[in-house]
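QA checklist item 7 of 12: single-chain prediction sanity check.
[x] sequence parsed
[x] length recorded as 146
[x] structure emitted
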Amino acid sequence: MSVLIDGIALFGNFFLWGIKPLLEKSVIRKTNSLDMSLLRYVVGGVLAVAMILVLGRWGNFMRFDVGVYGWMFMIAFAAYFALFLNYYLLSKYDANFVFAIVNPLTVITTMLLGSLYFGERVTWKRVVGVLITGVGIVVIYGTKDD
């Protein structure tokens, strides 16, 4: 059963993340980065609070150390501004271009910072994979169409 749930979660994750930029692109033309990011986080906050209450986890949420809440706030600020900047880029460029550039750079940044801050391993396979991805981006977007 766990494998089935994990499979559904994996499919839902990549499918929803795959259509999200297209949906965002269709709406960003009619609004702006600030309004889009505000609505996303308001809706997300309401859903998160509802889930915490329904699952009976409010007590757990209120038991973290003050330092953990500080990190949560920093993450929330970083995520908000990343999303805001994403919507700004989507208002100017094609969705497939923005995500083709941002996603591999996110992988590279995560790999490097994960190694520096958490001691995560950077293997040759990962480095080669990142390089292949970078070359793919240049081939797709760095050259003129035939």
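[x] summary fact logged: The CA atoms of residues 32 and 121 lie 40 Å apart.
[ ] second reviewer sign-off
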